[in-house]
Amino acid sequence: MEKIDGKNLKHTLTPEEIITAEGREITLCACVHKIKKSGGFYFVLLRTGRYVYQTVYRAGKCKGDFAALCEGAYISVSGTVKKEERAPYGFEIELTDFEILSKPKSECPFDISASHLGVSIETSMEHRFAALRNPEERAAFKICEGVTTAFSSFMQKNGFTEIHTPKLTTLNMEDKKHAFRLKYFGETAYLAQSPQLYKQAAVAFFERVFEVGSAYRADKHNSTRHLNEFISLDFEMAYAAGLHEIMAVITAFLKHAIKYLNKNYQNELQILGVTLPEIKTIPCITFNEALEILCKPKKQPDLDPTDEVKICKWAREKFKTGLIFIEKFPQKKRPFYVMGSKGNPKLTETFDLIFDGKEIASGSLRLHDYDELTVKIKRMGIDEAQYAPYLDMFLCGMPPHGGAAIGLERLVMQLLGLDDIRQATLFPRDLHHITP
Amino acid sequence: MEKIDGKNLKHTLTPEEIITAEGREITLCACVHKIKKSGGFYFVLLRTGRYVYQTVYRAGKCKGDFAALCEGAYISVSGTVKKEERAPYGFEIELTDFEILSKPKSECPFDISASHLGVSIETSMEHRFAALRNPEERAAFKICEGVTTAFSSFMQKNGFTEIHTPKLTTLNMEDKKHAFRLKYFGETAYLAQSPQLYKQAAVAFFERVFEVGSAYRADKHNSTRHLNEFISLDFEMAYAAGLHEIMAVITAFLKHAIKYLNKNYQNELQILGVTLPEIKTIPCITFNEALEILCKPKKQPDLDPTDEVKICKWAREKFKTGLIFIEKFPQKKRPFYVMGSKGNPKLTETFDLIFDGKEIASGSLRLHDYDELTVKIKRMGIDEAQYAPYLDMFLCGMPPHGGAAIGLERLVMQLLGLDDIRQATLFPRDLHHITP
């Protein structure tokens, strides 16, 4: 019988911790990233969960069995810390001993230690478990961590409560044709395309809520910017005075996220060779203004991807920013639950946020009055019975509210200038990939 | 054309902010929680996203149309802050004006303002959108927020990287019979029962990872402690020296979570009438020791729910704690990927954490050697082809590793002493509920 006290937890030493141990011996577990001969000794690069450290093996000075060492092995080492300006993080470790904990069964399909893996996304997907070991490939996912952490802390600081809503549902807010369907104990259920209904319900009791959760779209896209399963950064807030208040929350979050990433993820930004944009303000134009800028006819109900690219180019020239809000889209392509614009019932209180040619967020004010909602559902020819559980919440009263959703992978893709959204997704789900 | 700068975000005033405005007028948006006549005036209790504030309406002093006011309306008020020791948080607000923003269509099916709703979970499920407006009902979900926030910050502080893994998969680590199945562009996919495979894969490149994500079990349970969709707090770590190191991480997390909740969620703990347990150490016994304590025969392959209740009673008497680790379960009921115990191949390096009679976590050391894994898969008669993508990752080498999963709703249920796990789930998914 033992008692577990949870004290003295071990962790892998960071560069800052190692450098303070200069001249002393430390121990470390890591993966053998690269072995390079250099005159009478060997450089053994060791990959930890975040860093690659330079160690040196000299035959007479280290007890470990060098012949047994190979790239890809996981080992435990001891060695002396020496200042070395030419090494990463300004130190190297002179090995005194090592023990091999685990060896690979076969060689990796590509050179994990390359500064740039240089394989197609298709090849990377085929050997996903290997590709992600490359420091540049994995770096994007530390940035994903940074963005979600920044999102959660920003939201909580601003009075939003974190919620978890079901992804199995019978209620689809967007479009059943493009939802994954399954049997749930005899009933037909769908994978939620968004937490829309549930986050709306939650403003009645939490006033402001956010969620970091999976969302599903069964669209047969075959593009570099769509996923069939993605992480949605959702929020919803009561008493929003207007669309611009919701945009202000997104703007403030993006500023906070960039500050947070610059402070805590320099290591990864340097590996990726990325300088994050500085955001001061984000311009906002109406859909009709966008059509004028694009010299397009007014009857067009939505912008297409090329329009989005052109608008961002225009914004970059005019405002020196790749980010732009477009608001007040026509009702036609927007879901029933959005609020119509006062004075112009054909327009809606909706917006998209475009970032260097790609939509990364969208939001709206929602209808909150039971009568207005039911009238609109009837007018749009929607089956009212299907939305009965949704309408239920409005019977007890709902505050005026609105919200938005930000696509995590899209945001990270654009922040880092990645070519393909799959590079911002650990195990992408698309038309061709349900495995691994 | 406007520019959104994200500055001067609004938020609802906290009690601390209101009390500092004593003698001054403030404005506030909130829901009319309760109207109570008291002599020549009315108490109007206002419910914000977290608090219920006492305001006072006097006919001559407030411009708002009192006749139009009703419980459940969402309103914007202005009023003067007055110290009042008998009121919640030590103040009340003397109303000077209000505007009704939204009114309910019909009355709530029960008294939202009751300190204890007092309806069955079945009734609460039937009127979920109403029930969650009750301050006691919603309080559990602030605690859920606190636990996940504490989990994320604890894990990151200890060198774990947050990951998001797919919930749509063809790989099932546990048991296909009890997985939800769906068609994914012509292929058969499953909803992940756990992120097991993916978090194991991630230790190869991030060393230590954690995830807060949905998990799915298609079991036909009809109990107060099972959900078919739940939030799993998962972590996985390379180089764990043994099972006790993984238990130590859980113990340290629980200590941290309780400290964090006590610091930041006193408001909800008081509403719920809960004093959180103090954890110093968590005792750990072996499965065989547990059988001895229970006076049960050695051939039993697992503990049943009554055993778990008895063991916790025993722990409470002997160690004054309702928490106990049980380790080294027989191979029979444990999945193929767990490591066998050295010296006794019939036992495994596995553990469960039981909290007042209910399992809240389980973990194990995993096999990390390709040859050992394939031999075991064959010996257990498992279709090797099915696990080919899983086995792939071991070809490139894997560090020794282990991990665990904590059920969020189970943990919150036990921390708060709730009777039913549905009370710790906003919109529960069980045998009878796929809606709302």
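Chain B touches chain A through 129 residues (CB under 8 Å).
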